[in-house]
Amino acid sequence: MTPLNRRDLGLLALRAGAGAVLVAHGTQKLFGWFGGGGLEGTGKAMEAMGYHPGRQSALAAGLGEAGGGALLALGLGTPVAGAAAAGAMAGAVAVHAPNGFFAQSGGFEYPAFLGFSAAALGVAGAGRLSLDHLTGYRVDRPWTVAAAFLGAAVAAAAVVGKRAQGQRAAEGDTAGGAES
Questions:
Q1: What is the pTM of this model?
Q2: How far is CA 10 from CA 20, 34, 44, 68, in A?
Q3: What is the pLDDT tens value at each position of the chain, 180 positions in all?
Q4: What is the DSSP string of 77-112?
């Protein structure tokens, strides 16, 4: 048995912290915990933010955050968990980007930090203090990292792109109505 090292302890601390925050964030959307809107309230908010259909968007975001966060905290399927959480956070970044960087002005600082943390853990791996290590890294292979992040990037780009297209169309309808 090898002794614990600082890298493994650091990865455990980062996984536990980031994972717990992501779980809390996602369960707000899924179940209305911690003052969240649940699927109904979050679905309406997602519609207002340009994500259609709202309820399905809320479910996908909640599962990416809560599911990805739980798996990150456990260190199980870490590449997939990190990619899922990072992809969900990409959608949040798109909503907050017009407000600039800093969170105090409604910017994307917080979701970007969560997304980058999740992505870094997905790429770095969970370390020896994880279920991935206990299971012989069966779900944490080099090809899994590539496939998970490629899939998450494609999905996030499609969802964010569809939202942007809808917003441009709505702006065109508003501009066209003003000219008439």
A1: 0.91
A2: 15, 27, 39, 19
A3: 567 799 999 999 999 999 999 999 999 999 999 999 999 999 999 999 999 999 999 999 999 999 999 999 999 999 999 999 999 999 999 999 999 999 999 999 999 999 999 999 999 999 999 999 999 999 899 999 999 999 999 999 999 999 999 999 988 877 665 554
A4: SHHHHHHHHHHHHHHHHHHHGGG-S-GGGT-SHHHH
